[in-house]
Amino acid sequence: MAPDNAWLPSSWRSKPVAQDVKYPDTEKLSKVLNKISSLPPIVTPSEIERLRYQIGLVQRNEAFLLHAGDCAESFDACTHENISAKIGLILSFSLILIWGARLPVVRIGRIAGQYAKPRSSSYEKIGDREVLSFRGDNVNGLDPDDRTPDPERLLRAYFHSTTTLNYLRGLLTSGFASLHHPRDWSLTHVRSASLRREFETIVDGLSDALDFSHTIGVESTASYEKGGGHGTLGEVDFYTSHEGLMLNYEEALTREFPIPSSSSTRTNASKPAPTKAFYNTSAHFIWIGDRTRQLTGAHVEYFRGIRNPIGIKVGPSMADEELVRLLDIVNPDKEYGRVTLITRYGARKIEDHLAGHIFAVQQSGHPVAWICDPMHGNTLASSSGLKTRNFGTIIDELTSCLRIHAACDSRLGGVSLEFTGEFNEEGFSVTECLGGSMELSEDELGLRYQSFCDPRLNFEQSLDVAFLVSNYFKK
Ligand code: PEP
Ligand code: MN
C-alpha cells in the first residue's frame, strides 16, 4: 500500500478546491489539459534549482529578493512595449538596491503566466446585471458577455507565457539588460529632476566600477558560482512567477525529472537525497495566495509535492501555529531555498501580527525568506469608486516591516510589489496609486488608470520605493 503521504501531481483532486472554476464543457477541458501535458516545459529544472540556490542566499542574508510586476497580465498586454517596460523597471529598481545595499538582487517577475485571479465573490454586479466575476484571462473575459469559463483559454495562457518568456530571454541576452547600458531602460520619461539625478549618479558610479573591473579583469567575481550560475556583473538573472491558482493547469505542466547533480539544499543528512523530483515547469517560482492556503485544501496538497521554490502569502487571518503547521507540510525537511513568506497585513495590522509570526517561525527552526508585500493589505476605494492604494500607506507598512524584523532579530529579505513601467504615447505613466514624489492626487487618478485588476505603482513611484529600501540597507 502507498504510504499516507505519497504524492502525485493529481493528489490535490481529492481535496476541497478553494476558488474552483466550474467549466460547463468538461470534455473540452480534458482535451485542452491533455494537449498542455504533451507540450514542452516552459522553464527547466536547472533554472529552478538555480533559483532555489539563490533564495537560499536570501535566507542567509547574502542577497535581496525583488518580486514584482502586474497584479495580473492580460493576453492583449503581451506586447513588445509592455514587456520591455516591465523588465526595464525591474532592472532599474534592482540596480538601485544593488548600489545601496551592496548585495546581489534575485529578480522574480510576476510575468509569463500571471493570468489567474482569486475573487472574493463568484458573481459581480455590472450596471444592473449580475454576472460571473472576471477570474483572469486564462479563465474568462473582462467583457461582461464573455464570463463563461472557457478551457481553451488555458492553452492560450500557455502560449502567451511562452511568447513572453521567449522575448524576455531575448532581451536578457541581447544587451538590453546589460548593466553596461542602464540608460536604455526608459528613464527618459521620469520627470522628477531629483529622481533622475539620483538614478544617474548610480549609473555613473556603476559604469566607472564596471570599467575598472574590466580593466583589472575581475568582472566575474559577482557571479553566483554555485547553483549553476554563470552571470557576471554585466549580465543578469531573471525568473518568472505566478500565483499557482489553477491547479489543473499546474498539474499538466508538472513533470518528473532527475534532480541536476550539483543541487543540494538539504539540511537533514540522515535521509538519502532523492535523485528525481516533480518540477512545476510553468514558472520558476509559484505562490499560494492568501485565499487558498487552507492546511487541508487542494492548493497546499499540490504545493507540498513540487520541487520548485514556493511563496506563501501570509495575511492577518493566519494564526502563529497555523503558519508553522503549513511550513511543516510544505517543507518537512526544512530545506534552504524552498519557502518564501510574503507578508501582506496592511499598514494598520502589521503591528498585531508580524512579530508573532517571526517568533513562531524562529522557534520552529524553519529556514524562510521574509518578503514584504505592502500592496495587498492597503487597497481602498477612492471617492470616485476606483480601486487605489496610497503611497504613504505602502511606505508605512514597508517601514514598519523593516523595523519589526530588526527588533525581532530577523531580517527583511525582499519586497513584493505590483508596479508597471508602462508609459503612454505622450510619455505619461499610469495614475493608479495616490502620492509619491509626483504627489498624485485623487482627482488625477482617472487620467490614466489602466489596470483591470489591482492598482499598480508607476515608474516614478516605484523608484521612490527602491531608494527608500536601498537607503535603509546602505552600508
Ligand atoms: C496578488 O498577489 O495579486 C493577490 C491576490 O494577493 P493575496 O493572495 O495576498 O491577496
Ligand atoms: Mn493583486
TrEMBL record:
Binding site for phosphoenolpyruvate: 110, 313, 344
Keywords tagged on the record: Amino-acid biosynthesis, Aromatic amino acid biosynthesis, Cadmium, Cobalt, Manganese, Transferase
Coiled-coil regions listed in the entry: none
Residues the record lists as binding Mn(2+): 71, 376, 418, 454
Metabolic or biological pathway: Metabolic intermediate biosynthesis; chorismate biosynthesis; chorismate from D-erythrose 4-phosphate and phosphoenolpyruvate: step 1/7
E.C. code: 2.5.1.54
Pfam families, A to Z: DAHP_synth_2 (PF01474)
GO MF entry, a single one: 3-deoxy-7-phosphoheptulonate synthase activity
InterPro entries: Aldolase_TIM, DAHP_synth_2
Cofactor: Mn(2+); Co(2+); Cd(2+)
Free-text cofactor note: Binds 1 divalent cation per subunit. The enzyme is active with manganese, cobalt or cadmium ions.
SUPFAM superfamilies xref list: Aldolase (SSF51569)
Catalytic activity: D-erythrose 4-phosphate + phosphoenolpyruvate + H2O = 7-phospho-2-dehydro-3-deoxy-D-arabino-heptonate + phosphate
A GO biological process held by the record: amino acid biosynthetic process
Protein family according to the UniProt entry: Belongs to the class-II DAHP synthase family.
Protein name: Phospho-2-dehydro-3-deoxyheptonate aldolase
